[in-house]
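This part of the workshop introduces the protein records we will be handling. The question running through the whole workshop is how a given chain folds. To make this concrete, we reproduce a full record directly below:
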Amino acid sequence: MSTTPKQNREAIEDRFTATAKVFGDYAIVERQRLAETLAKMVGAEKTQKAADLATGPGTLALRFAHHVKSVVAVDLTLAMLVRARDTAKSESLTNVEFLRADAQQLPIADGVLDLCVTSYSLHHVPDQARMVREMARVVKRGGRVGIIDILVPDTPGASEAANAIEVARDRSHTKSLMRREFVSLIDQAGLKVLDTKFEELSRSFDHWLHVAGWHRGDASYEEARRLIEATLESDLAGFHPRLVAPDPANPAAKPDIQMCNNALFIAAEKI
């Protein structure tokens, strides 16, 4: 179901305001390693100025702050920026600035940054090409852009199946991309791919829905579960789902599903 940019923005702010604590608790801890990996891929250095777009609870910004001179943490959702600012204060980070803005239209001048990074945000954006162009615009020539996001298998029917599951889980989801679509966005923005990395990140379906704010019995949980269960045999959507043993304390309960989130890391340079 297509949405207008206004509806998408409202959905993003609604979901990430509601999940500022639960998603923030997850992302700040569980995505530290991913942030450090991207920092290495883009060559983050102490002399550099950076921005983290759609920072959420400071997923990349708080880690990059240890590697760069300064970093601007950008997000649409005020609750997420408050969470990120509080964490930065608790960690005595003084080189992070917080900016409420749309990553598709940044109030940042051309070519003033060395690095511009983002994680798990493109699949929430209506105009993904525009966001990548903005990332390229704000870095200087020779500057680096870094992206981490969901990767959809390049097989027939995978995109439709994967995105249906994602939208059922989170109505602010727009579209997860295949590798060739990422490459096209990078090329169109005047960037050159320097390095890529792919990881399959194992996790529990119940926890995946939990950090989105849903639990068993909620309509969004049940719809996403129905859709992923339909791929148990075919693995059409590429989540590699499998049923796990039921909880011994409650053997009559529906078992959880073990699954994978496919993550693509991209480091690119402005040419």
User: Anything to note?
Assistant: Residues 204-257 form one domain. Strands lie at 49-53, 70-75, 96-100, 113-119, 139-152, 177-178, 191-204, 242-243, 257-270. The chain has ten helices and nine strands.
